Amino acid sequence: MSRRNIGIIGAGRVGAVLGAALERAGHTVVAAVAVSAASRARAEQLLPHARLLPADEVAAAADLVLLAVPDDVLGGLVTGLAETGALRPGQIVAHTSGAHGLAVLAPVVAAAAFPLALHPAMTFTGTEADLDRLPGVSFGVTAPDELRPAAEELVAALGGIVEWIDEQKRPLYHAALAHGANHLATLVSEAMDRLRDAGVHEPERVLAPLLGAALDNTLRLGDAALTGPVSRGDAGTVAKHLRALDAVAPGSVPPYLALARRTADRVIAAGRLRPIDAEPLLDVLREAAKERAV
Questions:
Q1: In what residue span(s) does the DUF2520 domain sit (predicted)?
Q2: How many domains, the chain?
Q3: Fewer CB within 10 Å: C terminus or N terminus of the chain?
């Protein structure tokens, strides 16, 4: 890809880091939008040569416009840029949303510019440390056929790997990532809280090797990596868990029930637990769910 002048609309954790990575690859971030104090500080650190301008001026100054804004404001932003005449023919306008595809960029096409959906499957801190994590990261990309070579070059400049995602499957793609990453963070935080309730002073130290092994095994083995009382059908142990959680942290019971039931479904489907052996466990889960519903 030829060297491009890039505009970043949204110098948040994602936009500022991707802009810095593109500068490392030889492109130039000429301008950025940074509204909050945190965004301005981030831009100063990661994009020190970029001018901080309003969104329409950033778009007008760039060959490639990167929209790194929350999903719910993306459509309005794109429409506004088109209505102000900030977009021009031949320009590439890319967004970093996982949930959206090309449909939200329809005003870009109407302006004879090129639309691109470019989502990094990574969680960002918005610091220089993220730059070292980008190599090898997958990017969920949706692009018109004529833009695919440019999209591949752009992802390569970021050190990433392209995963082509069909337009209609982007919500499912994004749901899978959010379910795996965001809910994992919630689950781990819950586990740390309950360990503190149990008197453990450094729950992160206890969990780190266990969760690291569980994640590694699951990525390699899938359902074959499932262990624990649910996978063994230990109804009595699960009942004790539910009573203990209800006494200390009732809010933890519903997610435990939901995940235990889903785990049971998966181990049964995988042939790890016979349906007849699972019945006592499933009875415990059903009764607990009924009690919560009353």
A1: 138-263
A2: 2
A3: C
What span, in angstroms and rounded, lies between the C-alpha atoms of 33 and 182? 27
Burial of 12 (0-12, 13-18, 19+ CB in 10 A): buried
Query: How far apart, in whole angstroms, are the C-alpha atoms of residue 187 and residue 86?
Result: 43
| Stated pTM of the model | 0.90
Tell me the CATH number at 75. 3.40.50.720
pLDDT values of the chain reduced to their tens digit, one per residue, 294 residues:
578 999 999 999 999 999 999 999 999 999 999 999 999 999 999 999 999 999 999 999 999 999 999 999 999 999 999 999 999 999 999 999 999 999 999 999 999 999 999 999 999 999 999 999 999 999 999 999 999 999 999 999 999 999 999 999 999 999 999 999 999 999 999 999 999 999 999 999 999 999 999 999 999 999 999 999 999 999 999 999 999 999 999 999 999 999 999 999 999 999 999 999 999 999 999 999 999 886
Residues 207 and 267 in one domain: yes
Cα–Cα distance between 117 and 151 in angstroms, integer? 9
- Cα end-to-end distance, the chain, whole Å: 62
